[in-house]
């Protein structure tokens, strides 16, 4: 995998250069990203949209340090993340990146507040303080009364909000979201997006959202459309897409 050694740092919050990603499909190489170049400015809410299978989740997983690219350079706030050792990359993600998974990825044996507190506890914060902060974030998402329930006692929308709280509780500089409003009704979705927008407009932070939810397109500062592993549209207008 080539990295950032030959690529100048342009000062963008997130800088992606020449990113490809290949997967093994039954002994054949399947290329799902084709030389993606993308710069994301801090202080903006950026949407990534497109049909299923277009490469959106693969791209944000690479940006978030979860999935290694086959080739290319990824800088997050000036750090060449794939030049880091595995341990340093985990530490960087823990302090700098919040990822909202579409499938929630909650720990089934601990309650909602403890799930939301996981990043803080992993950083070494006292468990009681971490849980108190997590509870406060759940309150902001209007589910503070669900803090002591296990994930299997929550609705899909409530689990989604716990996952969002977990991604935001440690105040990461980069928040990456995969369909954060998919399981939410219109009112809850707008509440979540208001919170994400509050995070995004900070001058030292950035938020990237994969979404098909046309109810929230009006909140974006920038909309990128992906087709077949390439970015085909970059603007502020809302493209016509099926939900």
What does this 3D model show about the protein?
The structure is a single chain. The protein has a single domain, classed as P-loop containing nucleotide triphosphate hydrolases (Rossmann fold), CATH 3.40.50. It is α/β, with parallel strands linked by helices. 39% of the residues are buried. Helix content is 30%, strand content 26%. Strand 7, helix 6 and strand 8 form a beta-alpha-beta unit. The mean pLDDT is 89.
The assigned structural class equals alpha/beta
Q: What do we call the CATH topology? A: Rossmann fold
What is the CATH class? Answer: Alpha Beta
- Poorly predicted regions are none
Helix residue percentage: 25-40%
Strand adjacency order, main sheet: 6-7-8-3-9-10
Which CATH-level-2 architecture?
Answer: 3-Layer(aba) Sandwich
Largest sheet: 6 strands, mixed
**How many helices?**
6
Counted beta strands: 10
Termini separation: 36 Å
Assess the beta-strand content as a share of residues.
25-35%
- Strand/helix succession: EEEHEEHEHHHEHEEE
Query: What do the pLDDT scores average to?
Result: 89
CATH superfamily: P-loop containing nucleotide triphosphate hydrolases
Total count of domains: 1
| Form type | globular
What labels describe this entry?
243 residues; alpha/beta; Rossmann fold; four-stranded antiparallel beta sheet; 10 strands
Topology:
Blueprint: E1 14-25, E2 28-40, E3 45-49, H1 56-63, E4 71-76, E5 79-80, H2 86-96, E6 97-100, H3 112-122, H4 127-140, H5 156-168, E7 174-178, H6 186-200, E8 206-210, E9 222-227, E10 230-235
Parallel strand pairs: 3-8, 3-9, 6-7, 7-8
Antiparallel strand pairs: 1-2, 1-4, 4-5, 9-10
């Amino acid at each position: 995998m080539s990295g950032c050694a030959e690529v100048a740092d342009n000062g963008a919050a997130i800088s992606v250069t020449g990113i490809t990603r290949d997967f093994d499909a039954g002994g054949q190489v399947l290329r799902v990203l084709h030389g993606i170049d993308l710069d994301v400015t801090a202080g903006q809410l950026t949407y990534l949209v497109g049909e299923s299978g277009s490469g959106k989740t693969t791209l944000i997983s690479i940006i978030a340090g979860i999935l290694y690219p086959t080739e290319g350079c990824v800088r997050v706030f000036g750090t060449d993340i794939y030049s880091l050792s595995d341990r340093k990359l985990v530490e960087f993600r823990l302090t700098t990146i919040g990822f909202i998974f579409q499938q929630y990825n909650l720990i089934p044996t601990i309650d909602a507040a403890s799930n939301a507190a996981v990043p803080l506890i992993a950083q070494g914060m006292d468990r009681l303080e971490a849980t108190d902060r997590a509870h406060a974030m759940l309150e902001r998402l209007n589910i503070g009364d669900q803090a002591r329930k296990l994930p299997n006692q929550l609705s899909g929308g409530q689990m989604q909000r716990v996952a969002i709280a977990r991604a935001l509780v440690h105040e990461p500089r980069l928040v990456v979201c995969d369909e954060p409003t998919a399981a939410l009704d219109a009112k809850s979705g707008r509440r979540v997006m208001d919170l994400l927008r509050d995070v995004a407009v900070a001058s030292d932070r950035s938020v990237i959202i994969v979404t098909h939810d046309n109810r929230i397109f009006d909140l974006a500062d920038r909309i990128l459309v992906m087709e077949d592993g390439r970015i085909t549209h970059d603007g502020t207008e809302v493209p016509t897409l099926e939900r």
